[in-house]
Write a structure and sequence with these properties.
The complex is a heterotrimer of chains A (about 280), B (about 220) and C (about 400). Chain A is an alpha/beta fold. Chain A has helices at about 5-10, 10-30, 40-50, 70-85, 100-110, 130-140, 140-145, 160, 180-195, 205-215, 225-235, 240-275, and strands at about 55-60, 90-95, 120-125, 170-175, 195-200, 220-225. In chain A, strands 3-2-1-4-5-6 form a six-stranded parallel β-sheet, with helices on both faces. Chain A starts with a helix and ends with a helix. Chain B is an all-alpha fold and about 220 residues long. The longest helix of chain B has about 40 residues, at about 30-65. Chain B is extended. By secondary structure, chain C is of the alpha/beta class. Chain C is elongated and about 115 Å long. The N and C termini of chain C lie far apart (about 95 Å). Chain C has twelve helices and 14 strands. In chain C, helix 3 (about 165-185) packs antiparallel against helix 11 and helix 5 (about 225-245) runs parallel beside helix 6 (about 255-270). The chains are: A alpha/beta (about 280), B mainly alpha (about 220), C alpha/beta (about 400). Chains B and C meet through helix 1, helix 2, helix 4 and helix 8 of B and helix 3, helix 5, helix 6, helix 7 and helix 8 of C.
Amino acid sequence: MSWGERLEKLDRRWIFLAVGFLVLIPLLFPFKLPIAVSGPARRYFEAVDKIPDGSTVVVSGDFDPASAPELMPMLTSSVRHLFRKNCKIIALQLWPGGPPLVDGVLHSLGDEMGKKYGVDYVNLGYKSGNEVVMLAFGTSFSRTFPNDYSGTPVKQLPLMQKNDNFETTKLLVNISAGYPGTKEWVQQAQGRFHITMVSGSTAVQAPELYPYLQSGQVLGLLGGMAGAAEYEKSTGVLGPATKGMDAQSSAHVFIMFLILLGNAIYFARRNAQGRA
Amino acid sequence: MSFFKQHLPVWLTAIIGVLTILSFFMPHPLIADPAETLQNWAIVIVASGYVLGAANVLKVNGEDVARRRTNWPYKIVLLASMIGMMIIGFFMSGGTHFLDAGTKFTWAYNNLYVPMQATMFALLAFFIASAAFRAFRIRTIDAGLLAIAALIVMIGRVPIGQWLTKDLPEPWQLPVWASWLLEWPQNAAKRGIAIGAGLGVMATGLRIILGIERNYMREDKS
Amino acid sequence: MPFMAARDSRLRPTFATMRPRLPIPALAGALLALVLWAGVACAQDSLATIQLLAPAPAPPTGVTANDVANDKGRALAISWTASAAEKTNSVLVYRILRADAPEGPFAVIDSVAAGTTSKTDETVTAGHAYWYRVAAVGPGGEGLSTETAAGHPTAQWFNSTRLSVFLITLLFFAFVLGFILFAQTGKSMFVRRIPGIDAIEEAIGRATEMGRSVLYVPGINDIDDIQTMASLTILETVAKMTAKYETPIIVPTNYPVVFTLAQEMVKNGFVAAGRPDAYDPNSVRYVTTEQFAYVAAVNGIMLRDKPAANIYLGAFFAESLLLAETGFATKAIQVAGTAQVAQLPFFVVACDYTLIGEELYAAGAYLSKEPRLLGSLKGSDLMKAVLILIIVVGCVLETAGYKGFTNFMATQ
């Protein structure tokens, strides 16, 4: 069997092993490659930075643990950025796996930055219903979520007494892994309630959201771990996304190599068959 | 009986569908308020589906275990996990505060559910590599253009792309080309597909509202 | 007794022999306290004087109360011209007062920060009239607007900002209904060949030859997603084919309602093929709602049961490549179709045939060849042509600087 044939029939587990090493080594021995902030990430940062200090912001964390490695750094950086501006946060989740993740970030950063639950931030938790919840939420926060994540009636929370719909909020930050997510917020809520929005999403979904970025319905967009790393650089607080970029770089280079190798073998065999 | 099985579902679908469409254009309370109520009812119906789902899992897998059907030991693992989590959540985690930090339910969520979810998602990286090697063949000019665009975007979106071309003038840097590809050509193609898919959704929805497509109902062949 | 003591000359003080009884530090302290007390009193007086002297801020002017357009009639937009005192930063807040009659009594309903000149009152009821006044509040008091603005919240029947969408929707419905009526006259309509849909029957035939089953995955969204509805429609046709060829079919589902409907579809398919006795209720299974747990279960079915044909039609997300690659590893023929644009590349790479976007919605009509369904397909196509024309016209006009058309098309 020629080398070409052997490579073509290569057991894919060798490829899995190579990918595993190429991801692990940069995590253990970082290269510290420089990160350039792209246009959409810069616009995300500017949109958050531009809102007046002390404004109320809605944060919708629509993801679950599967996409946490990409999206948790975005959420953490966004919440930190908002808390630094003394903004008030009203959080909700439309994925059942989301509440503990978002709650953890809010409480840990809240404690770190001296924020008080109920006054500076509230987590309303999860509600099923997808777009229906978005529409109902836009009309009245308290009617859609009568209690917060821990069961406290929202009318007892000072932050919720002053905010019951999008009229008093300045921004919607949507961290989204799929459906329901940014697209549904744009379709159901952005136009209807005239809300200003930014979005952080997984790398796979981000290209789908560029039309909304171009039309101005979404003011800024973070795509995948690369977007999260760019945002971390913009805020000046580097975190797990930045650490992951070296591993992502080496994985991308390896996949590029595999595509070129696969095609080189294909063309070589095709030429050989042509000659034969 | 035929009215309840054949006609009532179709009429209900038509009325609710038309009302929901109209509520997008007509803000008057006579239209908007019933539509909003129906949306709230939809939330309740979707939520109650989870109860139905749990009952179904118990029934189907319980039968498989009882009758020792193929792979029945795996069904015991499934049922034990499901019932175990329900017991932990209902009885061992502080009642309605079962989602608070430090409860047994939260421990199980953070140490069992979260790693398993992340593991499955992580498999994608390996599968992408094997699919890229196996299936990405430049057989036509279109495929060649696709390959070039894919390579530019893959390298341009990570720091190594910036590092490789940092000494070139900005318009020649890989991240700039990657951004351009993502913002313009792929955007245009995606918009086209999205418009077509959107029309497909409207057409299918209209067929369901008008009762032309009613396969979802049991057809009484007697 | 003091008076008797005072008559005694030995006790009567004289100025010559009298020496100061209070020590100097105490006197100084008392003097200081006197000065401080006088100072505070003066300061308070001054402040009061200043306050009395500082005028109340000039009242805001131009108060208006207008109905908020395109709503349910439960909001009024109150606006006013800022008080002149804003220039000297003498305004702390504006208070909005409302009454049910022009002569009052007025009660405060809300307050906004200085610098604001509008507020929406969402606590009104359609059909009632309300009267408003606005007061500028500062350190010197309150300046109440002299004018009273009347507002009448009205519910609108039609949201005028959505006129363009309404017209296009009407046009689309007209096209679809027109072609459905045309189809019912019996005339045939051309629909281009969709290789992916033709491949479904080929895949089922291959599974029959190999004596293995067909795996049908109807997506991972619930019944409220039109893709799932479209997939279940196709499932009935696929079930009919498998019943005809006596090929086992496996349908794992991940929502209870989808599970129930899938059972009905498969049963209907077997009945339509004239093989109701061959229907196996266990061929349709509810697995789990969790995305990756579901895909782990389906991968397990693929690796253990080794179906020869895998059909993925519906809404898919990150699990699409996991399914397709595992299916490839089992050497099954694979047909996929989704309107999730982000997942299409994975299916295109890993599957033998892929239905792109609306081809999934067309599949039901294409397979059944029912005239009314084909008619709706043609209506969609015509609408797409109209939209292309609108896009081209819009681009040309926008480039030429005429923004009216774009503004008309924009909705709120």
